[in-house]
Each structure stands twice: as structure tokens, then as C-alpha cells.
Amino acid sequence: MGLFFGVLAIILQGLFSGSETAVIRLNWLRILLRRKKKLDLLQKREGLILASLIGTNLSVVFASFAFSYFFVTTFGEGFVVLSVIFATLLSLIFGEFLPKAIAKEYPEFWYDHLYSFLAFFHWLFSPFIFLLQKVVQPLSQEKRRELKLTRDDLLSLFGKGGHAKIARAVLEFSSLTAKDVMIPLKLTVTLNKELPPIAIYHILKEYGYSRYPIYEKRKDNIIGVIHAKDFLFYPSLKIREPYFVSEEKRIKEVFAEMRRGQDKGIHLAVVLDRNKKAVGILTLEDILEEIVGEIRSED
């Protein structure tokens, strides 16, 4: 009987010690997307770890007592030392190393399958957990933090397939500025305000773009934008007010503003340097191409 309870205690120790590792190592975002209710318990991560530690220590004590009882009643008092060695080896191998190694490799799997086990013992040990937290909190200088989504969490969620490439491109895209994505002004087709309509017509026909920046005197002095369709109906050159952005502005902010301004005809942004001189242009197509281009380059 002592052997049975000793083995049972070692099994419980393994479940507790593995659960401690799983709670520390698991990716909480995967749990959130699969089953939200399981995240409710995970929000009490500190309590889960304490419950696992309490269970581990109680299991070790109980296993030592059970094996000692078995060896003494079966072989005599001279085998007490052997019982300690036997219990220690079983505890280290099957109660610590093996379950921790499995939980470290498959933390979400462990947490999913032992959720009810953890929830029960978290409830059972709740009075002791409460007392321990009251003792530990004044000694700890680190403030309790809520679970937060990190870049690595998000990338790990998508694995290594095509979705991961898209996620990585979007995350890297968010750190870019207008200067990183813009088309330099010297590579764009700009129109002098003083050009006659016939000259503008030939340029529009040659290049086929839908929008052109208009400059006055100097190419870095952009005063407006013309749409090819406007020119067809208003040969007198209808100039629209340009949308200016700083070269240091985050591209995600530029993209959001241009999306909101589409109804007002904002499809092209003129990028300005610190001296308020035009250095490039941006379109929604350029910004989207930046994301798509990143994905293609990884292929």
C-alpha cells in the first residue's frame, strides 16, 4: 500500500512541476484564440505557480513518507536509507526532469490537458495562496503586470508559413517613415505651372499617370497636384491643394490619413524635408506595394 501511494505522490509531483513550467513558458495568445475561458485562469499566473509549488512540495513530502513506510514494513528498519535514495531518484527523474522537459517543449498542450487539474488545485490551495501572496508582495519591488501582446507573441502565432511573412511585413512596415517609402522627387514626373495646356497634354499622354505634382519656379516648390481626368475636362489646368507630410512621419500614420482623405480626393502625398522643401511623393499604391514587396522578397 505504501508503494502505491508513493508512486501516486511521484505522479502528482510530476504533474505539479510540469504545470509550473508550462504556465511560465506557454504562449498565452494561442490560449486566448482557442478558448477564452482558459485565459481567465491564466490571468492568475502567479497563483497558478504558487499552487504548483505547494503541490510539488506536498507531493515530495508524502512520497518520502510513503516509500519509507513501504521499505520499513517490507524489508525492515535497516532499509530506511535505501528508501530515501529510491524516493529521491524517482522524484528527480519522474517528478522533476521528465515532466519539466515535456512541459517546456509543449507548454500549450500541457496547459490544455491539465487545465481542470490546475483549476481544482488552485481553488483547493487558494487560502494558502492568498497568505503567501500577502507575505511575498511587500517584499517584491516589481509591479504586477497584465498579460501583454508582444511582437514575438504575434509572429509565433502565425508559425512559419505565408501568414508569418505577412505578419512580419506588417510589423516592420509600422516602423517605417515617409522618407523610407517615398519616391524621390527626381524620379517623378512633375509639371511646371507655366507649361501651356498642349505641352501638359503630351506629357500626360506619354507617361499615362493619373496624378502629377505641379511646381512653381523650382521643382522642390510643389504648389499643387493635377489629376489627368480633371485636365481632360478643364484644360485651363485645375490645380488641387497638395497634401503635405513630413519625411519623418510614420508611414502608418500617413497611410491612415490618406485612407480617411480618399473621399476628399487625397491620393497623393508630397513629402517635405526639415526645410519645407519637397523631396518626394507617396501614393496609397506605393505604401501597399511596400508591404507586398516585403512578402515577395522573402519568397
UniProtKB/TrEMBL annotation:
<dbReference type="InterPro" id="IPR046342">
    <property type="entry name" value="CBS_dom_sf"/>
</dbReference>
<feature type="transmembrane region" description="Helical">
    <location>
        <begin position="78"/>
        <end position="98"/>
    </location>
</feature>
<dbReference type="GO" id="GO:0005886">
    <property type="term" value="C:plasma membrane"/>
</dbReference>
<feature type="domain" description="CNNM transmembrane">
    <location>
        <begin position="1"/>
        <end position="172"/>
    </location>
</feature>
<keyword id="KW-0677">Repeat</keyword>
<dbReference type="InterPro" id="IPR044751">
    <property type="entry name" value="Ion_transp-like_CBS"/>
</dbReference>
<feature type="transmembrane region" description="Helical">
    <location>
        <begin position="110"/>
        <end position="132"/>
    </location>
</feature>
<protein>
    <submittedName>
        <fullName>DUF21 domain-containing protein</fullName>
    </submittedName>
</protein>
<keyword id="KW-1133">Transmembrane helix</keyword>
<dbReference type="Pfam" id="PF00571">
    <property type="entry name" value="CBS"/>
</dbReference>
<feature type="transmembrane region" description="Helical">
    <location>
        <begin position="48"/>
        <end position="72"/>
    </location>
</feature>
<feature type="transmembrane region" description="Helical">
    <location>
        <begin position="6"/>
        <end position="28"/>
    </location>
</feature>
<keyword id="KW-0472">Membrane</keyword>
<keyword id="KW-0812">Transmembrane</keyword>
<feature type="domain" description="CBS">
    <location>
        <begin position="238"/>
        <end position="298"/>
    </location>
</feature>
<dbReference type="InterPro" id="IPR002550">
    <property type="entry name" value="CNNM"/>
</dbReference>
<dbReference type="Pfam" id="PF01595">
    <property type="entry name" value="CNNM"/>
</dbReference>
<keyword id="KW-0129">CBS domain</keyword>
<dbReference type="InterPro" id="IPR000644">
    <property type="entry name" value="CBS_dom"/>
</dbReference>
